[in-house]
Design a protein that fits this description.
18% of the residues lie in helices and 28% in strands. By secondary structure, the protein is α+β, with helices and mostly antiparallel strands. Bound molecules: adenosine monophosphate and magnesium ion. Catalyzes the insertion of molybdate into adenylated molybdopterin with the concomitant release of AMP.
Length: 429
Amino acid sequence: MSTPTPRAPMLATAEALATLLSAASPIAGTESIPTLAALNRVLATDVTSPLDVPPMNTSSMDGYAIRTADLTAQGNNRLPVSQRIPAGHAPEPLKPGTAARIFTGATVPLGADAIVMQEQTEAAGADVAILHSPQPGEWITAQGADIRSGSVVLPAGTRLTPQALGLAASVGCAELVVRRRVKVAVFFTGDELTMPGEPLKPGAIYNSNRLTLRGLLEKLGCEVSDYGIVADKLDATRATLREAAEAHDLILTCGGVSVGEEDHVKPAVEAEGRLAMWQIAMKPGKPLAFGAVRRAAPRGETVAEPSASASAPGAAETFFIGLPGNPVSSFATFLLFVRPFILTLAGVQAVAPRALSLRADFTQSKADRRNEFLRARINPAGGLDLFPNQSSAVLTSTVWGDGLIDNPPNHAISAGETVRFFPFSELLN
Ligand code: AMP
Ligand code: MG
């Protein structure tokens, strides 16, 4: 009897992710671009406010600016109106013993210490009767109440959302220093793959992963070079890797990372660089290949020896990640591993998706020894329903679902129990 080949030990999901992320660091290269064109880019430097916001004391009501000390305790509070201050106009200091007509957003005149809203006053010719005793500071938004001059309003590593751009603009930033986009080369292996629009020959299937993965990469703001379908041949795979290594930060492949005779990605990467094959104890997913591909030496230079560990490639190498071919496996491994890896390269500070704790409105009595990522959706009662077919080939589940339940190894789920749920709004962001 022959001895069975020992199986590689399976890595826990968290361990695999930590190893992967420890190899990544933000890419070099920044550019200064107009704030108006910076949506979804990643800040390379802190944005510091050069001014107080609001830049002066402003009124938060339509009413009258007064000096509280001018009001008598007896309530005989008829004051002459000495000026009118609309928003956007610089006021005179408030004459003692008078009130200033003022509007929302207008500058509070020097000397005034409260605003009385117009509903608590009565106009009386050139005077105004004040019918309320305000506290000092009432209805005044103090200069710098939102932002102090010199404070960091957006730290380096922030992904620029619409509201972050608004905040940058509120402190007068017309340009922002952002990191250049991460350059990703992607290709697909499998002689069975056909592009939609082409006739489907016997034994063929459509290349759905090309659309899914390109969409995911584009959503992350990557600059994508799509090499399309590469034949299941060692030479063709090696040639594409060599070409892709030249001008990219990461080469992403899909399919061909198992150990079948038609799986050429593994030997191709080993020949062109270095590779670690990980069996991750997750479902769907399992095989994930990680490594680097050598870059050709520019004329007159020698390529530095790649280090033994899968560390950040210098100019001498390009990162490589090989995803499994099954559509749900490549989708899930992208979301859980490639997304945080790319965001780290992009210089993003917060790369971990946030999970929700939600009630399972289903029972899954069979525990799996792997960490399952189950496609589920939030029902109107706020609980989770499970897609009935959790096969790694069933792409329908990813469109039906709102996210993935992170079910730990060896754990059955009973209806009513609270589970960890990663909404797609977090994983696809
Ligand atoms: P592989 O990882 O190459 O062994 O592929 C595993 C399964 O995924 C096979 O059934 C393939 O036909 C399928 N597959 C591989 N690549 C793709 C793709 N780009 N689009 C859709 N299905 C794929
Ligand atoms: Mg294949």
